[in-house]
Specification:
With 284 residues, the chain is an alpha+beta fold. It has a domain at 69-215: Beta Polymerase, domain 2 (2-Layer Sandwich). It has helices at residues 2-10, 20-32, 39-57, 60-102, 117-126, 133-139, 153-164, 215-227, 235-272, and strands at 107-114, 144-150, 170-176, 189-198, 203-214. It has a 5-stranded mixed beta sheet. A hairpin with a 4-residue loop joins β4 and β5. The radius of gyration is 28 Å and the shape is globular. The relative contact order is 0.08. The protein binds ligand 0O2.
């Protein structure tokens, strides 16, 4: 619907009689924008486009057809959004409960997203997935995504095992790119899980991809993702930059290990030298 409206709204009003001044401006504008059609022809085409849109794309039967077919898609995205909310809440609860035991929050932040339509279509094309909703739900695992950014590498594994121990979570797949980084240098722990969502009169199991990263891993992945848009580099420069990014990833891994070692030493010291648990002045 929005596409139809935009198409319609962005076209100039075709029946406006152009004044000489407007006509001149229009020609300047068209020359500037390198348009394909001469002025008169453009107007004729706009009128033809509008007639086509009114008669076909705005007919009641076509609009009913669009509504009928977009509803299941909107519903599917809404279900994935519900699954994201369930999983995000689970991590907020884990973070709060573990903060007492650890005296700090193991989760720095949580980011969530439902896959964008263009990213979904690109994946369907890449994997040659048939154009129907059940094939999409069955074969695409990351429509719902939750990214959990942790303080230290050990927090990742502690949180992942606490999450997987919950009896309504089913593990579908696990990819440990921390123990076995991608050739790009990418590090993260990925879990594909199924989580139930409870609707008005049904329960549905939905797939969610959970990515666990430390702040350092997320820093690298976010910047590297942005740099991917630079496709037109000469091959030797592209290789040099890929090597540079891999080197940055290795340095970041080293930083993570050093920060983890500092944390471990402090934790050991605290265990060996416990604070006096009794509060002076309180009789219990
Ligand atoms: P988006 O929507 O932009 O996040 P599978 O889904 O398992 O069949 P896929 O997609 O190859 O196959 O899975 P993979 O590689 O395990 O995980 C894909 C996601 O991990 C990507 O999402 C990224 O979020 C992240 N990722 C994987 N490799 C890299 C990498 O080299 N650099 C960065 N920055 N991120 C990476 P998408 O597919 O990009 O989709």
């Amino acid at each position: 619907m929005r596409i139809l409206l935009r198409f319609f709204l962005e076209k100039p009003a075709p029946h406006d009689a152009p004044s000489a001044e407007n006509q001149e401006n229009k020609m300047d504008q068209e020359n500037n924008e390198n348009m394909l059609f001469p002025v008169g022809m453009d107007n004729t085409l706009s009128t033809a486009n509008e007639d086509f849109v009114r008669e076909n794309l705005m007919s009641d039967s076509f609009l009913d057809f669009v509504e009928e077919n977009t509803k299941p898609i909107d519903q599917m995205f809404a279900y994935y959004q519900c699954a994201i909310m369930e999983v995000e809440t689970k991590f907020k609860v884990l973070d709060e409960s573990l903060s007492v035991e650890l005296e700090r929050n193991p989760i720095e932040s949580i980011k969530t997203r439902v896959k964008s339509v263009d990213s979904l279509l690109r994946k369907m094309k890449k994997k040659n997935i048939p154009l129907n909703l059940s094939a999409i739900e069955e074969r695409i695992n990351d429509i719902a995504g939750v990214r959990v950014i942790c303080s230290f590498p050990d927090d990742i594994y502690d949180l992942a095992s606490a999450f997987l121990a919950q009896d309504d979570i089913t593990l579908i797949a696990k990819k440990d790119y921390i123990k076995d980084p991608k050739p790009s240098g990418y590090r993260s722990l990925h879990l594909i899980v199924e989580v139930p969502i409870f609707l008005k009169d049904e329960k549905r199991n939905m797939k969610v991809e959970v990515q666990f990263r430390t702040i350092a891993m997320d820093f690298w992945a976010s910047l590297e993702h942005k740099l991917h848009y630079k496709h037109d580099l000469p091959p030797e420069r592209a290789k040099a930059l890929a090597d540079e990014l891999r080197d940055c990833a290795e340095r970041i891994e080293n930083l993570d290990q050093r920060m983890q070692a500092v944390r471990n030493e402090i934790a050991t010291y605290n265990e060996e030298n416990p604070k006096d648990a009794s509060f002076p002045g309180f009789p219990f």
